[in-house]
Amino acid sequence: MIVIPSAPMRNNSVASIYVNKVFTEEECNQILASLDEDKWEEAMVGGVVERGVFTVEKDYRSNYQQKIPVNEDGFPLNRIAQEISHANSQLWRFDLGGFAEDDLPWVMNYFRQGDHNNWHVDLGQRETASRKLGFSLQLTEGTEYEGGDFGFHRIEKSESN
Length: 161
What we know:
By secondary structure, this protein is mostly loops.
């Protein structure tokens, strides 16, 4: 027997954007200082050549990245997870299980003139990715560079966003 709800279950917050200050300036500087100059790698995109294959495709994305360093106390990953959990409980109410080991947060760096990241969908690193929420943390002041505007496809800005 199949039971169908009398009315579709909807979450009006699915397309919501959550904005909050997560780290102090000192903590942002601490994260930036923990980065290893030898670990920067050229960012790749998946699915351009073949499904599940990641390649450098500078027309789509041109920047460098490295996995966010996590100290012995779990900083900054624990704070990020706590903030995401709070935002999720307020808006989306997805069933979250934490970060997948093969899909930990990356720090992005746009070293070169013209580095960019075109419109894309954040789905994760593997064909079986289970990413439900995407996030971006600003670690530097917006006055330190030009560009970098963060946009969302088909989401209009309102006072509540």
